[in-house]
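Input.
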Amino acid sequence: MVPSSESIGTKDCSASDYSSKAGEVVKHPDIGNIEEAEWSLRETSSLNYEEARALLGRIEYQKGNIEAALHVFEGIDIAAATPKMKIALALANRKGERHKRRSQNLSSPPMSVHAISLLLEAIFLKAKCLQGLGRFKEAAQSCKVILDIVESSFAEGFPENLGADCKLQETLNRAVELLPELWKLADAPRETIMSYRRALLPCWNLDAETTAKLQKEFAIFLLYCGGETCPPNLRSQMGSSFVPRNNIEEAILLLMILLRKVALKRIEWDPSILDHLSFAFSIAGDLSSLATQIEELLPGIINRKERYHILALCYYGAGEDLVALNLLRKLLSGSEDPKCLPALLIASKICGEYPDLAEEGATFASRALECLGDGCDQMESTANCLLGISLSAQSKVAITDFDRATRQAKALQALVSAARSTNMRDLSILYRLSLEYAEQRKLNAAHYYAKMLLKLEGGSNLKGWLLMARILSAQKRYEDAETILNAALDQTGKWEQGELLRTKAKVQLVQGQLKGAVETYTHLLAALQVQTKTFSSDKSANHARSLELEVWLDLAFIYINLSQWHDAEICLSKSEAISSYSASKCHATGVLYEKKGLYKEAIKAFRSALNIDPAHVPSLISTAVVLRKLSDQSNAVIRSFLMAALRLDGMNSSAWYNLGLFYKSQGTQSSKLEAAECFEAAASLEETAPVEPFR
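Output.
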């Protein structure tokens, strides 16, 4: 029978007792490593008590007797042995450094390096036993002892010569790797991060693969631990060095170091590095930096098609749509992967956001539908939705009424098909469908789908509330629209109420509630100014400043209509302080001059607006109106401005009305007929016009 740890549990046993017990272990058929046991038998004759227990504890551990091994290891007085180990390691290091200087005599160390290695291994195995028993905090504290001993013994790091001929370096490596894992199991995130940072110090003489493994595991923990810890204290770094401010930045730094090591061929390529780095940059909102990292990868590390796809996603996420589209065109070319479904869908999505690219977007969506065949309904609904969006954008730039009507019908058909294939449960498709019906002024259908959207969302999406309110305003149900907006305001955070309050003010204006509208605008301005100061460097601050500009211009138009010139000028000066390079601001200034009868100054302001934005529809219409009043321009010029406005926005009732006035002024019979058609179109559009554009 193999002797158990209980039979040698007291310090009354001598080293020779352990020698005989080790001999019995060698003869036992259950032992896993006979050669090591034989070696242990030869060594036990010269072992002291702690070393002998360390040896027997290792044997018990190898047999799988974790509790017995732990009992043996707990009999070792580590606290008493620690000073001896530190002195012995320090002397061994000095001996190695002065090996060639034989004239200097060194005092003999209290322990051999082999004995130290044996005891450190015992401490490590004790930590493993505690881990196996679920005592993770005790295991981590035990494992930490190894690092403390080695770190305090070598001020300049672990010397290579000590790990060459014994298991000391191997034990140290295993302890450095194990300690963070133990703190993770003990649910101690702060200690986990501190142990990772400690493990990555250069003093442990770790090999490149081990260091890379620790860096990757540390980055993963920082990304997904779910908590924020204190940033590293890098007082020893130079002043210009980058110091991470939070978990995400530290993880990005570690993963970028790993990519650099791959580029230098110090470690093998690991695809998961790029996966985690993509997630980190996405969270940080810096996808352009991710694109830079991918572009710097050596050819052959990742597939060229995958490279195009990932870069396209990066640039699209960074707002560089056309760069992303060019990459997708390369990927979808005949020589690469023309049937790549994700790329076709993304390309169609990008094109659908630009009217001049809408035709290409419809082509990409059609190709995606062809590639699907009998594929999943979700992908089919997405492709149909994107097809509908592209066809809708095409209809807005159609030259003839027939082309416009045809594309609008096809857009609705595609969107309805997308909605049905998802059983009317996809929120984004329902929103697009309701929006398309609203823009085609089919308000009953638009209201039906908007109501369905709000019910499914539970009022959680701001866009759904706004669309419903604008549809109700187009139906001239202003009280219902205001009720919807009030309900939305009750369920929305104060930083997200800007668009709701602006829409509410416009609904109040059309109802003649001038005082209430001004109060709503004032409340909105106060909230926006606080938001701008609170998030001075955030993207939301830019949106707040843009919305504040629009609010000041809305107030300026109110005072212009009331002929309160001074108040209007104050509002315009406020908007000027936010942005002097604004087509809307220049247009409002022109309207003020026009109301004052200063037509030449008004024309200059409208031209400034069109220089900033040649497609600014209100400025095109106002320019035509003032030119007609001046009567110093040919009719062709006036008509060209109005037709340009209608090409950009065929649903603009003001453009149709002013075009009717232009034809009426011609005095001919044919022009009167054309004027009547224009007035009819203007009246029809005005009856279904929302207080704000649906989109």
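The mean pLDDT is 85.
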